[in-house]
Every structure is written in structure tokens, then in C-alpha cells.
């Protein structure tokens, strides 16, 4: 007994010693972790608001002085700083430790210090569909507006300069106001710029050290230059301003003349996004791109990237696009951004700042149907971009469940990698059913190919946009068609099928419809600002692309996303700017929103893609589907100056001091009722109508000198709308007039849903339409 007690006591003392040792080791680990955190540097953006000095060199010296004071020497400051923002606004990006970032935030003049953030890219027939019929390059000589003299800046993944879309045939002289450069780099020389691509810059300093190491170590396909390794930037640039290219096509599909919306506009390229999974587009690089674009003298900026929800406030410097675009807009540059690809869920729209033109995506009237002929001679239809080599003859057809490697494993249903039995799938077309968002037709086709299959039919819920499967035959169908094929497979003794090549069919599909992926409003940050603003084509858009595995310079590719709709609107903005050179960004936005269409090519209302096909509302398409012809002559415009945006920020509850730090304005916030509703937007959104509200707007006549406009109201359900005055009379002395819109709820039951309507001013020639969105809330009687 005594021996056992002694042994237990020894074990207890050993346990206590192990516990004490573990605690000491943990303390050491935490202490070392704290030291490591204090000595590890990362990129921070030190934002100082609007620039104080007109001379950029003086601003830069201030930045270096701050860093020198913080770090103890000029040499340390030189090694730390990455960018000096000194043209559109003031600030710098630098590598700092956590404690250094906290310390510099206390320096006079520093608005905020934020860690660098990563933004993501929002990834021929379309211009004819929009009504711009430039049939060939011969159009250049007949006086039609093609965007001459305007400069479109593209913040994206760079450009493939040899593409035939960027030849400078018939381009005019480079505008004398242009101050940009053509930066040389890997496989990019000054000769890659011309009268079409008049400038190119690239920004890499903001991405992580690990990402940069991948590029420098040749572990990616990237170029250390403005050259585009991804194709996204080349695609968006050519969509906005590509020159005429005859017989453009993707493997024979969609053959025709490709061109951008403004074929004679100049392009300025700002590469801030990189082809690395851990890189993307850093906030520091994006801000520098905005800063340089402001300095260089662009007229339009197209930015097909953004952040996901939850969004940051408009005075929070973590949203580089909101901050950069504010300063660009203040300098008269029109900024167009993609709405995001998180649809069809509501409250997902991004890039919602009121000074940004936010673009949703729609379909066009072109499709690529592919026939599936079953062994019983039944022909079903799917969609495909597959134009590779494959036999049109009948081969075996099977359902993925039947060739599962493990019959109890559900991953075979949507053909996940390694889930199929190669012996059973070999030589057959495999039908797969999508079960999750993680699996798509490309991944499934790879799994079928690995298992020896010769083709894939992929059944999924409705989703706009087609993907290429290389040379592997793949056809996308909906669940209804997929179920019919499964039924045939289960009945047939030896099921077979033949996949035909897709065809290009134009004008047979009702369009436009809101793309399933297009992010929807209302804005989560500022629901009184109706977002998106406008919709444009963004599904299966054919445009120039980076050649893959070839030296050809006439590569074209289909892409889908609000990334594609954004440059459509940028091209139209360039056309408007070319015709109306003095118009502000707000005027250009107003012209597009108030003249947009709500009617499809079949005479019915534009609908939202999906199972219900409901009528699209302003949270789907903003003012509607852009109409570039009518936007050239809108009749009336809703204009906004920078001071108006500042007062709007005041209405959101931001303090005068925080707004002054961002804008460097000396103006204080004004206290006005309904101030948040009275920003002079071409739309009206009232998110919290208790009983009644009054909204004011001001319009400027840009049409006939003498004109009389009358108000036509389509009331939202349960809302009485009264306009005062109901008639606006303009003449040579009266070009600007204001009016009020009184809203009164008549609803007895309040369910918190938005109701939609419109206010249209018409003089018989012009129809200036303002969308209305109103949500009533319960109020105390």
C-alpha cells in the first residue's frame, strides 16, 4: 500500500511539472507571437484626404517626412514607402508593423491608416442589340459619333496590345491634355502604345510578398508589365473602345464585325489586378491607379471589380474604389463600375457610392443551341460553346450514378473528380446533375474526361453564361431536359445519344432579361440611393482576349459578368462625352438613366431571369436597359456638384470632421429635413416612408431652348404621389427648374416590401423617366 501511494505521489508531481512546463511554453509562444507581430510588416494605406499642395513633388516630400519621422531615418522611409498618392488626393502606401501603423495614425493630417485589402474581378452582337449599327470601318468617314477625342481609362488586368482590336487605323491625334506615359516592362515596350493605346501603367507594390514572389519566381503566367496574362482587361478594353475587326468569332460561333462602343476613343491602361490566387487586386494598387488616371487626364474610367458585402462606409478608406472614384468624380471624370455577380439574391449590389455609375448585366438576343439526339430519335436542346472536334455519330449514354466508383457516394451525381468508374464511363457521354454551387460544367467535364468519357451533358438550375470546355464536347441543359434524358436512360436497354455542334441563332430569344448572376439592390449601405443605376449586356459577350497557346493576335473569347456590362456603359459614356464635352459625370449618368428602356424586343417588360420570370424592377436594372441613341439627347438632366455629395455624406450621419478629413472641405454639415432623399439623382428611393415625405429635384434643360414638360406619374401600389408643379416651362432665360414630389402612404398593412413606380417628364419629343422605389414602415398614429 505504501509503495503504491509513493508511486502515485511521484506521478502527481510529474503531472504538475508537465502542466507548469506547458504553461511556460505557451507563455513563451504567445510572447514570441507578439514579438513576431510587432516586427512583421504588411502593406498599410495612410490616407490623408484631398491634396493640400498643387505641386505633386511637395506632397510627396510631406509623405516622406512623415515616414522619416516615424521610422527614424530617410533611408528607412525610402525602403518602406510603396506609393505616394499625390495627384487626385493625398496619402501613401507603406510597409509598416502593427505598432508603426498605430503610431502614424496619430500624426497631424492623417485621416486613417488601414491594412491593404484585396478586391476581386467581377467577371459583337451586343452593340447592334443596343441600337448602335456601325456596320464597318467605313462608318469612320461618314461623320457618325464614334467617341473621337475621348480617353477611356481601364483599371483591370492590363492589355494584349497586339490584338487587332487595338490597331490605330483612322485614330485621331492624341489629345494635347494627355499627360500619361507608356511604361515599359516584361514583353511590353513603348512601341506597344499607339494612337489607340495612348498610355499603359502597372502597379504591383500593393500585393503580398508571397504573391509577388510567385510572379518574380516565374511561378505564374504573369508579366511584370501592363501586358495582360488573364484576358479580362483585354476583353473589357475592347468592349469599351475596340476598333472594327471583321470576321471576329470564337471557333466559328458568333461570327461578325467586332467593335467597341466608342471605336475612335483612346485607351489608357492601368494594370492593378494580377493572375495569382493570393493576389487579386490590392487596394493600394487600385488607389494608385486612380491617382495616376486623374493625373494623366482620362475622361472616363471603367472599373470591373469590387468588394463583396458587407460594404464599408463611404468615408472608410478600406473601399479603395469608393475613395478613388470620389476624387476622380470631383475632377470631372465619369467612373463606371460593375454591380457584382452575387445575384439573384437581393441586397448584394456593390460599388454603391452615389458618385459611381453602377451597372447590372442583361442578356442579348443571341444564343448557341445544341441538339441532343437520343437513341429513340427524340431531339432535345441544350446550349454549348463547344466547337471542338468530336464525332456526330451515336455513342453510349449513361447517367453518372450508374458509373459511380462508389454507389453510396453522392459526389458521382454531379461528377466530382475521382467519383466515376473509368471502366464503366469509358467511351460514353455522361449525364451529370449539378447539386451545389461548387461544381460547374468545367470541373465536371474534367472528371468525365479523366474517366474516359467522350462527352458530358450537364443539368443545372438556370444560370446565365456559357463556359468553354476546351475541345471536349459539353452541353448545358436545365433540370427538365436532364430529367427527360434520365428517363430515357432508365427505359432503354442500350441508351445512346449524339451531340451536335452548336449554332449561332439571333433574334429568336426574348431579351433583354436580367442575368441570373447580376447583383441586386437595394444598397445595404445607402438604400436612399437607388442601385444599380443602369443595365447593359453582360452575358456571353464576344471580345478580344489574350491568346492562349498561340501567337495569333485575333483571339476572341466569350465572357459573362457585370464585368462585361460595365465597359458597355463606359463606351456609351465616351460617346456622350464626345458630343457634350462640358457635361459632368452626373449629367452623363442622368442622360443614360432617364432614357433607359423597360421594354424587351417582344414588346413585353424586361424580366428577371429565373424560374418565375417576374417583371424586372429598379433593384434589378435601375432606370432600365441602356439606350445609347436616346441618351445622346435626353431633353433634361439631373446634375450634381461635389458639394452635393458632401452634404449627402452628412445626411448619413458622418460627422463634419470625418468628412472634412476625406474631402478637405471647410464646409460644415447642413441640417435639412429629408436631406438624404434630396441628392439630385435621376432616381428616387424612399426606404422608410412612415406616412408622408417630400422629395425635391432640379432639372436642367439641354434640349430645345423653348420647351414645356408635363409630369406623368405611375404610382407605386399603396402610395399617393403628387408632383408640384406639374408643368415645367423653359426658355432662354429659364434653363433650370426645381420641383417637389410628395409621397403619402395609403396602406393599412405594412409588410416592409418595396413598391415601384415612375415619374416621367415629357415635352412630346423627350421622355425623361425617373424610377421610384418606396418602402413603407409602421408608424405611430
Automatic annotation (TrEMBL):
Regions crossing the membrane: none
Domain Inhibitor I9: residue ranges: 43-122
Keyword Glycoprotein: yes
Family: Belongs to the peptidase S8 family.
Gene3D superfamilies linked: 2.60.40.2310, 3.50.30.30, Peptidase S8 propeptide/proteinase inhibitor I9 (3.30.70.80), Peptidase S8/S53 domain (3.40.50.200)
GO BP annotations listed: proteolysis; response to symbiotic bacterium; response to symbiotic fungus
Active site: 156 (charge relay system), 232 (charge relay system), 563 (charge relay system)
Main location: secreted
Domain Subtilisin-like protease fibronectin type-III, first and last residues per copy: 678-774
Domain Peptidase S8/S53 positions: 147-599
Protein name (Swiss-Prot/TrEMBL): Subtilisin-like protease SBT3.5
Role description: Required for arbuscular mycorrhiza (AM) development during AM symbiosis with AM fungi (e.g. Glomeromycota intraradices).
Subcellular location: Secreted, Extracellular space, Apoplast
